[in-house]
Amino acid sequence: MNNLIQKYNIAGPRYTSYPTVPFWDEKGIDYNDWVKTAVKSFNESNQTEGISIYIHLPFCENLCTFCGCHKRITKQHSVEEPYVDVVLKEWNLYCEIFPAKPRIKEIHLGGGTPTFFSPENLTKLINGILAKAEKCDEFEFSFEAHPNNTTEKHLQFLFDLGFNRNSFGVQDYDLKVQKTINRIQPFERVKEVTELSRKIGYNSISHDLVFGLPHQTKESMVDTITKTKSLKPDRIAFYSYAHVPWIKGVGQRGYDENDLPSAELKRELYETGKKMLSDLGYVEIGMDHFALPSDSMYKAMKNKTLHRNFMGYTASKTQLMVGLGMSSISDSWYSFAQNAKTVEEYTDLVNQGVIPIFRGHLLSEEDLIIRRHILNIMCHFETSWEDDSLKFPELNECLERLKEMEADGLVEFTKNGLKLPDSARPFVRNVCMAFDLRLLRNTPTTRIFSMTI
To answer: By three-state DSSP, how is residue 134 classified?
Structure first.
């Protein structure tokens, strides 16, 4: 396995979208094209499956140096209410272009730190969204939370608003690691908010763990998983740390690359964590995710309804995802659109009465075909071209690029398709790269991606 890691551990995309953001068309997307495709997708799916809403709440009191998110560091909570007001204005702009009342299947609050906001301001936000919409029968509302500033009031207010799932950013329990990434939180605090969530009635609790962080060791990973075992969250996101200081800047330059685990140790951290989670009854879902068989994400995997978008894996697929807030990315299936990346630019555009996108991508027919293959591989570890609609002129060239991976036991070809054996799951991004025509035609000359393994 170590030889394969050395061979295939190259820079590559994480495939939360196809095309990946660096390969969106340089000219971007015309504003009218974004509105047109958003309305088209709304008309095709609102009545049948509803829509999803991602709301980016960017504020954090402290900088976690491992973080790659778009955030604003401040201790001034006076920023909360004006930001909520602008997000609701943006939502009103979407409601004005939609020809009917939106039916919401999923809301996810991400960040930043959503629980930076007071329970009262979060209530104002969600009630404002729902005032112009209706909930689907089987809706799922979820939020990301920092254990240190999530109160019982946060948990209760959001539960009363319909939130039934939450995700706590744990990362690692080792104090040396926590100090290095500036994310100090005791196990006792994570235990408290996890148990409070269960007591209140949340039906899916997730913990985020990260491997590959500076100063992590096998012993610290075993300790983190052992502590996690005692809390038994329903889901675990077990992410590879993406070290991209040339993109994320000052935060990730706060420690030396020599502090990071070697490629071999990083893979050992993953394999150690994966085995421990498996022994605890968790099942690997897609890439980076584990769930108990009782959780909806496991059931979605079994039913082959698992989906992946800019929020990661989700059990609640919708064709249209509206991103609200600064830097949020929306997905109409036919196109992507990203909002302005700073609070000031975002606010100015919304106050001018326009949906605040600053870049995007209109998918071609080829993009749509490749997107389906990459989604199949990322969600189900298999894809097929038996249906003529999934064939494309370069298919044979893509398959030829996978011959070496087949020889290494990482890909198995069927008559009109392929699948990955369980042992090849760590290499799923490498398999997707063989289908990524935009990457193959425009090989980067500078570092823009993290390592695949």
So the answer is: strand
